[in-house]
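User: Structure please.
Assistant: Input sequence and predicted structure:
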Amino acid sequence: MTADATSDVAMPLANYAPFRRAGDLVYFAGITAADPAAGRVVTGYGDLPEHARAEAGQTGEMSTDEQEGPIAAQSWYVLDALRRTVESAGGTLEDLVNVTQYFTDLRDYPIYSRVRAKFFRVPPASTCVGVTGLLPNRLSRLEVQAVAYIPGRE
């Protein structure tokens, strides 16, 4: 089963499904902080909805916000898109059993981890991988893919 076009899911950057069910396991495609419909990548707190900026970590101090803003904003955007996509598949973030995070700079992990703690009461098993680049362009710093156990919801 895949998502339909009217679902509140993270839209793929190309021709692939945002998620796919295999029995009680649901596999979620990698999600980046890109909006294909708008043709842009999230690059800072200003790209987030007003209510999300403080939650992502915006301090109002230019030096801190400029340094941490790109990865903090991308982290919030990606995790919120993952949450909405999991809900479209009939689950919650609590149903995730495994998450793989890809970073173009592993030094971004502490900021990502701080944002991630706001989404997960109990974090799933996870792996972090350093990569040389991500789609759609060099501004992309993070991609997250996941697997969930969502029984009996076909």
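The helical segments are 50-56, 62-88, 109-116.
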